[in-house]
Write a structure and sequence with these properties.
The structure is a homodimer. With about 290 residues, chain A is an alpha+beta fold. Chain A has 2 domains: about 25-40 and about 250-290, no CATH class; about 45-120 and about 160-240, Cyclophilin (Beta Barrel), CATH 2.40.100. Helix content of chain A is about 15%, strand content about 25%. The first copy, chain A, has 5 helices and 16 strands. An 8-stranded antiparallel beta barrel of chain A has the order 2-3-13-11-12-5-4-14. In chain A, strands 6-10-9-8-7 form a 5-stranded antiparallel sheet, with no helix packed on it. In chain A, strands 1-15-16 form a 3-stranded antiparallel sheet, with no helix packed on it. In chain A, strand 2 and strand 3 (about 55-60) form a beta hairpin. The two termini of chain A are about 35 Å apart. The relative contact order of chain A is 0.24. The interface between A and B is large, with 50 and 49 residues.
Chain lengths: ~290, ~290
């Protein structure tokens, strides 16, 4: 199976190359050469913008197809200004950065669902999963659905805790978290959290500023001194901004031929540096390309 | 297979528990309760200490069983003071931090092998691989050898690019790098580098300071302004220090029953937060515990 994939992809790449044959493209070159049709825009209603007091801008694509109640809560919280003035409170190395959290001085907006259902997974039916050929340590099937890393047991499907994914902090079950406390993955994919927490989106811009924050020295990486916290100036949903002021991003379509070539190149690096293609790629080591809209 | 592992480990944990039965231990609790016999010391000749000018102390265990010529080179470079005064030059988000590198003003010590053999893998024979049951996207077998994450095709075996692993920067093949330029993994395991670069060790202390450094804005995360570089004050091999001054660390023995319980608990979290054990664990999501010698 792997060998077949390898050869057919080589063939496909050769067809598109000028004579004399070009060297195989690196994943970054495939992204750079992607046609416009390989990209989908992020819907403005699904784009959460978070501005930190140090000038960092973070953009998060929300995933209402996987956690609709949690995502609706988060939109409501953003629109009520609930996150404004809160802070990054936890940075645990090789794990997560976490922000906001309970604020007793600030009551929840009335339309927030305080106890959402456990949107940890959903039916696979209705999702067009583009499967990866490589086996996975955590699930029978893994692949991508419209740019999202997804795992499945054949019946249910769920977002996978890859680098940059955003989830909803919660206390002990059956609590699922309302959405007032969010975290982003900044280390080796903590896939053991899959189906144990609601994932609600993915950081598409600005993660390198969050992942470089000083690690907290308290238990679980919480900052022990409130002065260490990094303030959140404001959050907004892009759809609420005038069109001309909206940042806009595009995600590579995971059902495009370009994405197939990209994944194949991630699995089988043949650019000049590599001496031995891996013949496989982990779900979280094939991050779906994102770019600012050109 | 997975179910059997699950039950036998539950049985083992139950045997050791007082009545009434305790809740299942979390991985951290298993580490905290590990007996002295579950730990091996890091040999002082394999412990590289790197002090940065900002006060950060980094400790790296070297892996001479996997890359003997490269490790010998690195010891020689350390002892000649070659790294002293060099710097961290590259921090690429979700990938690597890289330091030192060519210094034309400083000739290589005479005994450094300028062109080492490609120590990218070695025979599996002679290594006691403790296998993981979960499948891997990159190799037919994965597991641990004396605390190292190892992958194998049955004939050859190699260190895996997990978080914190240290490798030797190189140019294009057949160059393999002399050891003057090193990198540490600070993101999702870039396993596609396995067997393409010589891995020489693992950061056992201080990685949280390296992983929190500002990301470089140049190509591949290189710092574009030399002022952004973080200086290396000195490097030493612990064996060269008076015994009383040596920091010393212990690595959990990966052939110990404690490690087996730890891996099982990583694969099947049953502590109170979790509602659904994963029934699997990725090689790089089961990092071998390390502690300062008590």
């Amino acid at each position: 199976m792997r060998r077949t994939l390898l050869c057919s992809a080589l063939f496909a790449l050769t067809l598109g190359a000028a004579a004399p044959p070009s060297p195989p493209l690196a994943p970054g070159e495939i992204i750079a050469a992607a046609p416009a049709s390989a990209w989908r825009p992020i819907a403005p209603d699904n784009l959460l913008l978070m501005d930190l007091v140090n000038g960092t801008h973070v953009a998060i694509e929300l995933a209402p197809d996987f956690a609709p109640v949690h995502v609706a809560n988060i939109r409501t919280l953003v629109r009520a200004g609930w996150f404004d003035g809160s802070a990054v409170v936890r940075v645990q190395d090789n794990y997560v950065v976490q922000w906001a959290g309970a604020n007793e001085a600030k009551p929840l907006p009335a339309s927030v669902v305080a106890h959402p259902p456990a949107e940890y997974d959903r039916p696979l039916a209705g999702l067009a999963l583009r499967p990866l050929a490589s086996p996975d340590a955590y699930a029978a099937r893994v692949g991508h659905v419209e740019g999202w890393p997804v795992a499945s047991d054949g019946g249910r499907a769920w977002l996978a805790h890859c680098y940059g994914m955003v989830g909803v902090g919660r206390d002990m079950p059956p609590d699922t978290g309302s959405g007032v406390e969010l975290y982003g993955v900044i280390g080796q994919a903590p896939r053991h959290l899959d189906r144990n927490i609601a994932l609600v989106g993915r950081i598409v811009s600005g993660i390198e500023a969050l992942s470089a924050l000083p690690r907290g020295t308290g238990d679980l990486g919480f900052y022990t001194d409130p002065a260490q916290r990094l303030g959140i100036r404001r959050t907004r949903i892009a759809a609420d901004l005038p069109v001309a002021e909206r940042p806009s991003y595009q995600v590579m379509r995971s059902d495009s031929p370009t994405f197939a070539a990209y994944v194949e190149a991630r699995a089988n690096r043949r650019d000049a540096f590599f001496v031995r293609p891996a013949q496989g790629v982990d779900l979280c080591n094939a991050p779906v390309p994102v770019r600012a809209q050109p």
